[in-house]
Amino acid sequence: MRFVLVIVGFCLLSAGNAWAEKEMTTDHAEETHDHASHVEKEHDDHDREHGDEAQHEAHEEAEHHEDADDEHDHDHAVSKPGIAPTEGTEDAHDRSGDGQEPHRDDGHDHAADRHSEHDDHADEGAKTDGHDDHDHAAESQSEHDDHADESISTDGHDDHGHADEGQDEHADEVHLRPEQIQALGVKTERLVARPLGEVRQAPGEVRINRYTTDRVAPRIGAQVIARHARLGDHVEAAQPLVTLSSVEMAEAQGAAVVAAREWQRVRSLGRKVVAESRYIEAQIAQQQSRAKAISYGMTSDQVDTLLRKGASKADGSFMLLAPRAGTVVADDFIIGEIVEPGRALFEITDESVRWVEAGFSPTDAGQIHIGDVAHIRIGSDRMSGRVSQIHHVLDETTRTRAVRIEVPDPEHRLHPGEFVDVAIEAGEGAPVLALPEEAVLRSQDGDWQVFVVGDELGAYRPVEVDRRYAKGGLAVVEGIAAGTEVVTHGAFFLASELAKGGFDPHNH
């Protein structure tokens, strides 16, 4: 009975040991599997290969553990009490007993080594992919920042210095091409000190210069056949304007042809053959017929042409020619119209010099003299001229004396009928530096400035001045030397171009 109890106890003890060994093996396998899953999550690409190897090794170890458990159970079964184990059995039991702990230890150590290896590899990977890359990125960023700082230092500070240097040199200049200067009408004059006397001001009106104007009209009644010029056209002297036809002209042309031929016959015969009276009569008739045709409106050249061509051209047609070069400012007629003698068909004027007439009080007019400088202002435009005539009769309506001013106008900026402001310098005063008001402008910072000619062709730069006062369209300035070439027309455009460039002429 005791023997039976011993055997039962021994069996129970062996079963407990086997169950404990299985539980330890299962826990170890689960731990290994969990670790492999964790590594696989963090290193999806790199550790997938290592995870496959780990699973393969774990499978081999599990098979190894099962074989070891079977051998261990077998050894325990053979080594029951009462049965004398053989030497092979004892050796097997010893090997099993000796190999159980080493196997458990080796398996645990192997898993631990694998865990440590994976941890070390993960740490190395993290160090390589994380820390090292971070250091490399930081190093690259540092190099990039250093390069950027160097670029900023080169492209920013240094270039800014060069830009400032270049700007300081040319920032206060406006450069124009010759065609721009001509198109904008930029004009300059050398600043000269001159006496500026009392200024008399009055409204004025632009008028046609009648001394340089011609009216073209027929001298006989005629019909308009053709037009050769139109309103606004610029014509040259002797240029055809209109073709007319007249019965009177036809009679005069026919008489001129007959008289010319008779005179030619008598002259060819000579005084020895032809009586003296007949000779003189033929000569006078030829001259009178020619003069009559010219008086009707033909020119001497037209008569000569008529006489060469003969009676076939004596049809009464003739052309009126331009008496001077100028602009057609009137052409009041239509083709086919019969016009009376003296009826003005064209009005041609030379617009290079205009008249401006202004009415002054008798007192002011008494202070004005022929040759005095006059300043004309029409809108923002400024022009200058000189007094040419002073009327001696007062206007019955305004009770003023008309003062006539001749204003050079080669650009045709003035037109008859326009109202202007007139300022005339009367008397003598202290010499001052005076410019047209349009030449003195406000700068960006509010100071007065004028534009002077720069060192280069087409260059203009602003110069700050003191504007003392204005009189009669003139601004008296100080702070600039006499003899300086100053812009008198077009300064506003130059100031606009300077403002577009964002330049500060005073380097504030």
Detail the topology: elements first, then pairings.
Elements: H1 2-42, H2 47-78, H3 87-170, E1 174-175, H4 178-184, E2 187-190, E3 194-195, E4 198-207, E5 213-216, E6 222-227, E7 234-235, E8 240-245, H5 247-269, H6 276-296, H7 300-309, E9 317-321, E10 326-330, E11 338-339, E12 346-349, E13 353-360, H8 362-366, E14 373-378, E15 381-390, E16 401-408, E17 419-426, E18 431-432, E19 434-436, E20 441-442, E21 448-453, E22 459-464, E23 466-471, E24 474-478, E25 485-489, H9 491-500
Antiparallel strand pairs: 1-22, 2-25, 3-18, 4-13, 4-17, 5-12, 6-8, 6-11, 7-10, 8-9, 10-12, 13-16, 14-15, 14-17, 15-16, 19-24, 20-21, 21-22, 23-24
Helix pairs in contact: 1-2, 1-3, 2-3, 5-6
CA-based gyration radius: 61 Å
The count of DSSP E runs of length 2 or more, i.e. the number of strands, is 25
Instruction: Give the amount of beta strand, in percent.
Output: 25-35%
**Which segments are poorly predicted (pLDDT under 50) over 5 or more consecutive residues?**
19-23, 25-60, 62-169, 502-508
- The overall average pLDDT, rounded, is 75
> What is the subunit arrangement here?
single chain
Structure overview:
It is a single chain. With 508 residues, this protein is of the alpha+beta class. Among the domains are: 2-122, no CATH class; 174-191 and 430-508, conserved putative lor/sdh protein from methanococcus maripaludis s2 fold (Beta Barrel); 247-315. It has 9 helices and 25 strands. It has helices at 2-42, 47-78, 87-170, 178-184, 247-269, 276-296, 300-309, 362-366, 491-500; strands spanning 174-175, 187-190, 194-195, 198-207, 213-216, 222-227, 234-235, 240-245, 317-321, 326-330, 338-339, 346-349, 353-360, 373-378, 381-390, 401-408, 419-426, 431-432, 434-436, 441-442, 448-453, 459-464, 466-471, 474-478, 485-489. It has a 6-stranded antiparallel β-barrel with strand order 4-13-16-15-14-17. A 4-stranded antiparallel β-sheet has the order 1-22-21-20, with helices on one face. It starts with a helix and ends in an 8-residue tail after the last helix.
